[in-house]
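Technical note accompanying the year-one report. For the benefit of new consortium partners, we illustrate the data format agreed upon in the data management plan: each record pairs a sequence with a structure-token string. No post-processing was applied to the example shown here.
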Amino acid sequence: MTHRVFIDGEAGTTGLRIRDRLAGREDITLIQIDHDRRKDPDARREAFAGADVAILCLPDDAAREAVVLAEGMAVRLIDASTAHRVAEGWTYGFPELSADHRSAVADARRVSNPGCYATGAISILAPLVAAGLIEPDEALSINAVSGYTGGGNALIAEYRDGTAPDHFIYALTQGHKHLPEIMRHSGLSARPVFAPSVGNFAQGMAVQVPLHLHSGRTLAGLREALAAHYAGAHFVRVLTHDEVGARIVPTALNDTNMLHLSVNGDDAAGCATVVAVLDNLGKGASGAAVQNLNLMIGADEAAGL
């Protein structure tokens, strides 16, 4: 069976990568709009009407407008923007979130694709909160570094023309747009301190959650809880200590849909750092969208990935 897919906003970074992952598949027919009509509401409405699934690769306001355009149609939606990640009636598109979440994504009519930082943070926090190893109201910090492609075309241009710094920290007022989804889908009730940064590399990401070891919280216990949660997951691996080595490299999983978790530290020192590594353009964006699409159309979850 061939499924008709429309990528609304396919000219952007995420849209282009999704298109490339889908273009050669025999089970997918891409619905495309002529370049000069890509913002024409009538052309987009016609594309929505002809699609089984539409993937929205748009700014937040444009994504909300697209949902209105598609209202009343049979088309199912995957939204890669921030607009619907904590909205009622939308299923969060992180299939590994819980034991039954994969089937929730598969059955959903509206799926919100997670943010890149949020994917890394939630992959660490949600299983540990569920296992009782992190309290929902615990005072936490999340530190992260991403490749510059996560900042959109303007930031990409800065790095490519050599005017951007090698590294910078931002979102200093604690208002980063990924915080609401991190809290909602991790089960946190207290707002974490979030310190994102950008490095002089195109893609890749590392997200860190530092933890004090106390009240029965050990390195082995943290690792075992994560390994149990992700047992059988196709795209998430919990690494052993020997697999991690002395350095963690944010670019290690570039051009894949994989996410690696590691628990690092010293029980005697009483400190740990749990780290997630992923490609901000892969599992953090286009790869996740294709994974969700595969589940929604009943394809192999790993098709095109």
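Partners are asked to follow this layout when depositing records. Residues 7 and 301 are 19 Å apart (CA to CA).
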